[in-house]
Sequence to fold (641 residues):
Amino acid sequence: MYRYDEFDHKLVAERVEQFDRQVKRRLNGELTEDQFKPLRLMNGLYLQLHAYMLRVNVPYGTLSSGQMRRFADIARKYDRGFGHFTTRQNIQYNWIKLEDAPQILRDLADVEVTAIQSSGNCVRNITSDQYAGRAKDELVDPRKFCELLRQYSVLHPEFSYLPRKFKIAVTGSPNDRAAVAVHDIGLRMHENDAGEIGFEVLVGGGLGRTPYIGHTIRAWIEPEHILSYVEAILRVYNIHGRRDNIHKARIKIIVNQMGIEKYRELVEAEWQRVKDGPLAVPDEEIERIERYFAPPRYETLEDETDSLAEKRAAHRAFDRWIRINTAEHKVPGYVIVNVPLKVLGKPPGDIDADTMDAVADLADRYTFGEIRINHRQNLAFVDVRQQDLFELWQALDALGLARPVLDSISDMICCPGLDYCALANARSIPIADDISRRFVDVDELADVGELKINISGCMNACGHHHVGHIGILGVDKRGEEFFQLTLGGSSDQHASLGDRLGPGLPQDEVPEAIAAIVGRYKSLRTDGERFLDTYRRVGIEPFKEVVYGGDERKAVA
Amino acid sequence: MIIANRLTDGLVVFYKGDGGWTVDIADGLVITDEAEQDGLIEAARADEDRCVVVDPNLIDVALDGGSPRPTAIREAIRAFGPTI
Fold:
């Protein structure tokens, strides 16, 4: 993992003390709320429906056990004993007091964690593949470049007041688990024929009110030029992006209005000007950062076959858990274990302090003390010895975290919605709860297979509803909550935006509508076809039919 | 009623009318006389200037067995907490 150097420590410490003074000035009346708001947002502090909310960065979703324990301490000391992992691989605390915020930031700085730029019109947390550096299907480990981009973008004076927020995601695997096509900049890393690594650069993707899949602005750029190229994109955006209308201020709007060709021309012209300047990254710098991500001391092991097969045969639930919740590791004898934070009766992504501590202990005991967060609000242990799988499964089961639900109906993305969020129009957590109770049987979940349901409580789309295989969007219609369904969205390497199924449904009809869609899929699927494959083959009509019965009488929203 | 968030901790509070605020909606002032409304919201906004509360606003409530309940879902959730 990356460790702070003296510059990082100094910069973060200074920022905390600066914020402490800003909070004091707000509390004693020297700053109005209008003056203070942009300052607190730059430090991740929102004012939500019930309290202040603090969003804390987990850079590219990588966390040490010690950092997780600190998250638990903060949940206990300053919050109501829990935290919420988000689609941007961050953690949010929902019940923070303004007067405590500076001390929380100090506590976080002690373990090299910040909330800097977790909000505001700046470059946000760089996100990535939760399996980075470990997945068998990975071509390039993206973490060193995520870290390079993090260092470059934190407190960058030119890009601290962009027209709007700016999100960058990086994947080094052809199987995109980081949703790069729906980011302001998406970076896909791969090797060329000469064995050199480089980036395909996408720009102008995004969700929200006006969703777009990103365009490839450049098919190949060498690592030494990645900062200058990103800077050229940011500078063109900073100049041309709209500041007169918040709904039209994201880069996707300007890219799509101007056209990708024109945007590319402007970026290339700017890039030619800056590419050989101080932003050219020397190999030594990349190597210096890379050393922080050196592989842990793996034992020389063989893939477990016989002993694991015996245990799997003896314990059906263990077998299913392996099949569904684990992923292949690039090192023989090791495996990646996913820990979905989808516990019945709890909001997706929520985790209490005791469970955080327990997860940290398991990370120390069964891995090299590292925990990953993914954009589907789940955790992962990325270095588990296959011979430890049975013990780890039992330990997770005791915590209620061994449900074999990864990528199933139960593994929903869900924003906080109107239960917490000041922007929301409708509640999303109760919908997730209703659906998870409707599909509680793990045999049924396994039979249905991969079906990603994404739920947002408003069109800002924090719950990524546009790219859910089934998307659910909460809307307010004359003071009542309704839910619009979309089908066929995806955020992977074949990203697509969902198609609207029809008029919104009242809350109590949503689980049955999902059940009807699932039933229709099961009757239509061919061997091995996932829901998304079937949908792409047959289109929306068969699903419309089962939900609305040919009669869109529920045309209320 | 007049609803706001308390500056120091962000908690939802209701104006009591005598210059004070309460976290318990049942103790808040239900404004029934429209003629008083403007004066009260002005007094509440003065508390925003004095750094007591943030963003005071008038909301509609219905009296449910004598206890006020916001008619909008959003404000009801603010008053009574998350529903799940």
